[in-house]
Design a protein that fits this description.
- With 167 residues, the protein is mainly beta.
- The chain contains three helices and nine strands.
- An eight-stranded antiparallel beta barrel has the order 1-3-4-5-6-7-8-9.
- A hairpin with an 8-residue loop joins β3 and β4.
């Protein structure tokens, strides 16, 4: 359970992920961008009691687009992960990306996360998945209904980076 109680550092991963938005002309020029994120809420894992190391975690995340078409945009999101030991799958993850001139809603449709363990301690994590934008307005309206893939990795306690590739 020590490993699971350390999982709160992971929660952002999902927000991960934040999938973003961009002006239609920018989307054509750049289809990859990066986000700097941090977990801003949530607690430790919640054991489900049906078997060892089976739990859920609920997280809130905040990200800033650092590169690419949505540079300067701010993402807020929430996620629910189901844990089986040191691995997790996303059950729900969605949020909003805001920047003057557009608002975009993102939703992860798939996601897997694996903790990195060294000397019996959680030292980080990596994650990846897929998602789509069910709603996009303003200069990002062309993203509505489109898909993306994402990868993420921890960079410190409650901190992580995400790379998003639009399809």
């Amino acid at each position: 359970m020590t490993k699971l109680s350390s999982l709160w550092i992971v929660f952002g991963a999902t927000a991960m992920v934040a999938l973003s938005a961009a002006a239609p002309t920018a989307v054509a020029q750049e289809n990859t961008f990066t986000l700097s994120c941090q977990a801003v809420g949530g607690g430790g894992s919640e054991p489900l009691g049906d078997r060892d190391c089976h739990s859920i975690s609920v997280n809130l995340d905040s990200c800033r687009a650092e590169t690419g078409p949505m540079s300067g945009g701010v993402l807020t999101g929430s996620s629910i992960w189901e844990w089986d030991g040191t691995n997790a799958v996303v059950l729900a993850h969605n949020g909003v990306v805001r920047k003057p001139g557009f608002t975009v809603v993102y939703q992860h449709t798939e996601g897997k996360l694996a903790l990195t363990i060294a000397d019996g301690k959680v030292t980080g994590w990596t994650a990846s998945g897929k998602g789509h934008w069910p709603l996009a307005t303003g200069s990002a309206a062309s993203l509505a209904g489109k898909s993306y893939t994402w990868t993420a990795k921890s960079t410190g306690p409650t901190l992580y980076t995400v790379e998003v590739k639009m399809e």
